Amino acid sequence: MIEQSQTQRDDHASTPFDICATVVHPTTRRTARRIVATLALTIGSALLATACGGGLSEDSTCKDYLAASADQQQSIVMQLAGKYDKPDYATPLGMPQVAYSCAALPDTTLGEYFKTRS
Fold first, then answer.
1. Which residues are within 8 A (CB) of 13 and not within 5 positions of it... i.e. 6 or more apart?
2. Average pLDDT for the chain
3. Looking at residue 38, what is its pLDDT?
């Protein structure tokens, strides 16, 4: 009788996935699904924020600015140059000036940087 039920179980578990399904406890499967879903949401949110240009703001630090893409850097410089009435930063020479100054002031926020510049 024992041999017969073992044979039936072996016939039923024909693939590695079937074997795992019979061995893994249902609670473990639920936990694994939750972990995978959480990871997918986290990665998806990060990709969406990057794709939408939501990476930099007035509260971002110069260190964040230097780590951002060129498109994000240009976008925030143009936005803050307009907000703080700093037209010199909206020129081709303005972008390198921000990067140069931010390298020396990594903990300064971009808002503070634009407020204090003449």
1. 19, 21, 22
2. 77
3. 66
Which is nearest to 50 in space by CA: 65, 66, 62, 68? 68
Helix, strand, coil fractions of the chain, as percent rounded to 5: 75, 0, 25
- Given a contact cutoff of 8 angstroms between Cβ atoms, the answer to whether 65 and 98 are in contact is yes
**CB atoms closer than 10 angstroms to residue 89:** 19
Q: Measure the CA–CA gap between 60 and 2, rounded to whole angstroms.
A: 67
pLDDT at residue 96 tops 60: yes
Q: Max Cα separation, the chain?
A: 90
What are the tens digits of pLDDT across the range 8-32? 555 555 555 555 555 666 677 777 6
